[in-house]
Each structure stands twice: as structure tokens, then as C-alpha cells.
Amino acid sequence: MKPSLPYDFSTLSIWHRTTRSFPYLHSNHLADVPASAKYLIIGSGISGVLTAWNLVESGIKGDDILIIEAREAVSGASARNAGHIRPDAFRGFPGYTAFHGPEQARKILENERGVLDDIKEFVHVHNIDCDFNLTTTFEVCFSEKFVTEAADALEAYKRAGGDVTQVKFYKGDEAKARTRVAGTLCAYEWTAASNHPGKLVQWILNDAISKGVKLWTHCPVTKVVKHRSTGDQFRWDVHTPRGIVATETVIHCTNAYAAYLVPELSHFITPNRAQSHAFIPRHSLSGENTLKSTMALRYDVGSFFSVNPLRNGTIIFGGTGIRSLSENPEGPSGFMNTFDDTTYSELIAENAKREFNDLSREPQAVPLRHGEGLDHVWTGIIGMTPDSVPLVGPIEGLEGQWICAAFNGHGMAGIFRCAPGLVKLIFGKPWHDTGLPECFQISKERIERFKEPTESSL
Ligand SMILES: Cc1cc2nc3c(=O)[nH]c(=O)nc-3n(C[C@H](O)[C@H](O)[C@H](O)COP(=O)(O)OP(=O)(O)OC[C@H]3O[C@@H](n4cnc5c(N)ncnc54)[C@H](O)[C@@H]3O)c2cc1C
């Protein structure tokens, strides 16, 4: 698919709608860009702002760091997700093993577990008001096929030395009672969290700006080319509609859009549009009946609904939004292969409504009151890679350019370690010091492995 810049007029998520007074939302939106910056970060999602924050923590002067954002601040997936910080406890193990082998697969899952601990600590230490709620999550299994898949994944992860001591398993009536989901055959439970991702990322950005970091919004980077002069320390010229910035270091935190500026990645990073919904619960899911845990309602691999009850009682439904792969006429899964987050799928919204009604378990005859039920729908773009893990590190052949992107819909469970890891690499530390799984490392070989053979090479 042809790479793209972020679309104008994107939908606003519930997180955007509840943080419109963020003072840096439209920072420097009319000003020309500075002529130079030592470190230039493209993208103000969690990858970009956390990279800036960690550069400052590592001793770089805030003044030396410039973040450029195509739209308003934090307008990408980081403030469009379903508000879940849900480490994969075992389920993705076979899929990761198929690409990267069991040891790397185990490291990927352990990394996600560690990220939850890191975010919990970060929010606590800085006393961040982002509705962080450490709770548990259920994997709710609806089909025999998924029951088997989940059991096999758990066993395989255990055999590979994975720690599953904190995963609890329930079946039959106990699973139904604990999850309060009528049709479940069995369920797994482990620790996860819910938060307001917009408030979390805006806090980090605000803190970085208070330490001197500069932010230019509504300013898409259109190309990065070799610096025009040889007489100074700069290596790259970063072009925008409001001028050119000369810089030593470019850090691409552009998620699904990365290939627009690094065309070598156009076959490797592809966009998937995901959709989320905010529901105002009925009697059966409010007050003393408020859900305490988050959930993934799993019908099949690739067919699921995520359910995230927020502290204020609103329930967020995300996931692929389908019960079976044949349910979505718009694409092979609930995710659409597009950069267009200006609109949403009515069909997926209807599916979410059906799921919400089933979860509510109120008699059909009881109508929704005005204000109950579906309150808001939005979409966001996830950056996918063919081997299901992100790209982190220096871009070979483009010395001074770095990337931290394409989190395959798992960024909230990964970036809190990837961005600090990238900063260590920028300071010349070896990969080992990042603590990240080796398979996250970007390399020419990894990118080219997935290139379609051209006719001449056949
Ligand atoms: C609906 C939905 C549900 C999700 N659910 C979950 C979940 O349950 N768990 C989980 O872990 N993750 C989830 N994710 C994924 C998670 O939100 C992302 O992985 C994460 O936010 C990526 O962060 P990022 O900073 O890398 O990218 P983004 O937040 O997308 O930030 C990239 C930024 O770069 C900007 N940009 C791009 N190109 C340019 C350019 N050329 N010039 C200037 N700026 C540019 C964009 O405008 C954007 O602001 C979900 C995502 C969506 C959309």
C-alpha cells in the first residue's frame, strides 16, 4: 500500500474529547520551524514524547530537542486506543515463536509484563492523573477452537520456561460467575491496567516541554534529505511546509506512517485501522454492578472484542469488532487496511452494540434510556509489520536516523521500554543494555527478508 502522511480531519477519540484544554494541543501551529535542532523527533505519540523525555533524563538539554507533529499534539494511535495496558500473558506465544523462535517469543511476553510494571511505577512516582487503574483482565473463550488454541499456547509458553504462575484458569460455571459473561466456556485471568492514554501522554509531553523541549504541531514532515552544506555538524535537512530544519539526529516515531519518510519500509510497515466505542452502561453494568476487570471476548484468533470499564463507569469496546472472519465484508479481519481515520465502520459499530447488549443481559423489552448505550465511536491507525514486532534502532545506510515504530497494536504494552531502549542506543550503548528482545532490532536483512521477489530476481 502506498505510504501516506496522517489524514487531516481525523475522528476525535473519547480521550481527545476530554482533554481539549491541553495548552500545547496546537503548539506553534502558525510559526516557521526553527532553522536547526540537535535532536529532531518526528511524531508526538507515546514513542516520540517518551523518547524526548528520556533524552532529557539522560542529560540532553531540552532546548536541543524539537518534536514535529503533523496534526495536533498526541493525535495518533496513542490517544485513540482502547485505554488498555494489557500484557500478553501467553496467548501470542505460538505466533511469535513461528517467526522468532521460542526464546525470543518468551522475551516478547516478558517485556510486555515488565512494561506494565514500569508504567505503574512511572505513574506512581510522578503522581500522574491519568485514571490509571491496576486491575485484572479476563481472556473469555467462546468457541471450542479458541479453548484449544488458548490451552495449547499456555502449555507451549510454560514449556519454554515462561512464567504463568499469576495466570488463573476457570471453566464452566465458575468462569461464567467470575466474568459475568453468559456464553463463556472458560476464562483466564491475570494482572492488567486501564488508563486514560491521552492524559498519560500529555503529562509526559507537558513535563518535557517544561524542561525546554520544543513542539511544532500541524506541521507534517514531508521529506528528510542529506544536509545541503558540508561546513557544519548537521547531517540531515528535515522539510516541512513551514521551513527546513537542519539536524544531526532524526528520530522517526511515526508509527504506521513511517514509510512515507523512509520508503525502504513501504513493504514492511502497513496500516491497519482499528475502531473503538464508548458505551454508557445500563443498570446491569453500573453502580454496584460495575465491571471491575477488563476483558477480551475471544471468538477466534483475530475475532475478538476488548472490553475496558473505566473508573467513571463508561465502558470502552475495542478489538477487531467481529465474531468470525467472515463477518466483516470490508476486509479479511475487523481491521481495515487504510490510513483513513476520518471515519468509522457502521458495521463494526453495530457489532459492538450487539456485544454490549449481550454483556448487559437486560431483557430486550427494556429500552435504553436517553444517554445510555453507544456514546461515541472513533478510529485510529495501527502500524503492522510482517513479523509482528516493532522496529527499534539505527536505520542502516542513513547514519544519524533512528526509528521506534510499528507496534502491531501493542504499543501501550511495549513503548515504555522501547523508547528508553532507543535512547540508550543513541548514546552508543549496545543492544544488550536496552533489555529488549533482539528481534525488535531493525536491520536491512530483516526488512529485505519480507520483500516480494522482483521479476528479475526470480
Ligand atoms: C483503536 C486502537 C486500539 C488500540 N488498542 C491497544 C491496546 O489495547 N493495547 C496496546 O498496547 N495498544 C493498543 N493500540 C496501539 C497503540 O495505541 C499504539 O501501538 C501506540 O499508541 C503507538 O504509539 P506511537 O507513538 O508509536 O504512534 P502514534 O501514537 O500513532 O504517534 C505517531 C505520531 O506521528 C505523527 N506523524 C506521522 N507521520 C508524520 C510526519 N511525516 N510528520 C509529522 N508527524 C507525523 C502522527 O500524526 C502521530 O501523532 C491501539 C490502537 C488503536 C488505534
TrEMBL record:
InterPro entries: FAD-dep_OxRdtase, FAD/NAD-bd_sf. SUPFAM superfamilies: FAD/NAD(P)-binding domain. Signal peptide: none annotated. It comes from the Eukaryota. GO terms for cellular component: cytoplasm. It holds the Pfam family DAO. Residues 39-414 form the FAD dependent oxidoreductase domain. This is FAD dependent oxidoreductase domain-containing protein. The lineage of its organism: Eukaryota, Fungi, Dikarya, Ascomycota, Pezizomycotina.
